[in-house]
Amino acid sequence: MYSNQIFQWQTETLVKETMVPVSLHKWLFNKGSFMLGLNQAGVHDAEIAVIQEGWHVPDEDEADLLGMKGSEAFIREVLIKSPAQDWMLARSVFPKETLTGELKALANLQNQSLGSIIFKDPNLKRTEFTVSLIHGDTVWQQNVAPYFKQASQIFARRSQFFSNNKTLLLTEIFLPDIYNLC
User: Fold this and answer.
1) In the chain, what are the domains?
2) Which residues, in sequence order, are CB contacts of 142 under 8 Å at separation 6+?
3) Distance (Å, rounded) from C-alpha 107 to C-alpha 149?
């Protein structure tokens, strides 16, 4: 779903000061569960629609971050939506070693949110976000292109989670409907 060319990752501190609308800060820089945030904002009908999941070789920059050059990972891509809104596209990359022990359930989430499992882990650590502004003139694949009919700028964030020497990478693209909650 995501191509390396569409992202130009920058640190959270840099983008906060330069390019992110203040109204979006509460969503883009919240380190907690996105689904819980939606619920707290009065969105009680959000659901997870799985776009695809399975074993694939991650993109080169994902593999570099996870230290797994050439290895397959379990990759899950989802759309978080309500009946009349699309909130987020998300891509999780799980190295094989991560999907063991208590985190084995991450390979069988189905329509359950990632946060419903990982935020229950008391050992969980999340890195600082890197953020990218995505422009409408970028070449997009089918799943992302329609959203530029609603907005010329779309923001994405990426972070890594660590727990007991296990890691995963989460990339989240905030879709234009999120501005309805700002």
Assistant:
1) 4-181 (3.40.1410.10)
2) none
3) 33
Strands 47-56 and 73-81: antiparallel
> How far apart are alpha carbons 76 and 53 in whole angstroms?
4
pLDDT digits (tens, 9 = 90+) for 142-157: 566 666 667 667 888 9
In this structure, what token pair is assigned to residue 53? Answer: 């999941």
Residues of the chain with pLDDT under 70: 1-7, 14-18, 135-149, 151-152
Cα separations in angstroms, 67 against 58, 97, 127, 132, 157: 11, 12, 15, 22, 20
Phi, psi of 85 (to 5 degrees): -135, 150
Our separate counts of H helices and E strands in the chain read: 5, 8
Q: How would you label 119-153 residue by residue, b for 16+ Cβ within 10 Å and e otherwise?
A: beeeeeeeeebbbbebeeeeebeeebeebbeebee
Identity of residue 9: W
What percentage of the chain's residues is helix, strand, coil (to nearest 5)? 30, 30, 35
